[in-house]
Amino acid sequence: MARLLLTGGAPDEPATSDWDAICSRPGPTQLFDALFRALVGCGLPAQARTESSKDDAIKGGTVWLGDERLGVKVVEARSAETTAVPMRCRWRTFGLPGMTIVWDFSLEYAGQLGYVAFRHKRLECEFDSPASQQTFMDIYRQAIGKDAIFDVVGDKG
User: Fold this and answer.
1) Would you list the domain boundaries of the chain?
2) pLDDT digits (tens, 9 = 90+) for 84-103
3) Cβ neighbour number for residue 115 with a 10 Å cutoff
4) Which of 113, 115, 118, 150 could be stapled to 87 by a disulfide with Cβ–Cβ 3.0 to 4.6 Å?
5) How many other C-beta atoms are found inside a 10 Å radius of the C-beta of residue 105?
6) How far apart are CA 36 and CA 10, in angstroms?
7) pLDDT digits 0-9 by tens, 61-82
8) What is the rounded distance in angstroms from the CA atom of residue 36 to the CA atom of residue 103?
9) pLDDT per position as a tens digit, 117-138
10) Is residue 78 exposed (0-12), middle (13-18) or buried (19+ Cβ within 10 Å)?
11) Residues facing 118 on adjacent strands
């Protein structure tokens, strides 16, 4: 099974002052919801559990939408001291037929909207077949509005 890295086609990154663009541009939530709808017949699973941590510098948390059998693990970390540092986020799928998706991104603080200004970092995928990859690419195009362009980053095979 090849591991692929998105090298082109990431969602646009709106300015933190452009609230209309922040609210209207697609991002990880729209993609993961579309994947679950297409592949398992329902949207993102309901929140099942949360875990939080805090030290003097970082507030962190893990939210499970569903579980390890079928779901998304959402890990977030942000500064406990300032909103000037973006929140780091990682979403990882579990149980989707034919694929595992891991998307690292950050959210910049946008005033009253909070941490919402999307910044793509890394999207890595594993597919069990070319058909699964094509399915992902079709769903990605519909959800994000761009073609996903990948490079191979490794092979588990």
Assistant:
1) 2-151
2) 999 999 999 999 999 999 99
3) 16
4) 115
5) 21
6) 20
7) 999 999 999 999 999 999 989 9
8) 15
9) 899 999 999 999 999 999 999 9
10) buried
11) 107
SS3 call for 56: coil
* Helical residues (DSSP H) of the chain, grouped into ranges: 19-24, 28-40, 130-144
For every residue of 69-106, which 3-state class applies, written as one string? Answer: CCEEEEEEEEECCCCCCCEEEEEEEECCCCEEEEEEEE
Amino acid identity at 78: R
Give the integer Cα–Cα distance in Å for 89 and 154: 23
Alpha-carbon span 32 to 40, nearest angstrom: 12
Identity of residue 33: D
Helix (H, G, I), strand (E, B) or coil at 16: coil
pTM of the model: 0.91
CB within 8 A of 24, min separation 6: which ones? none
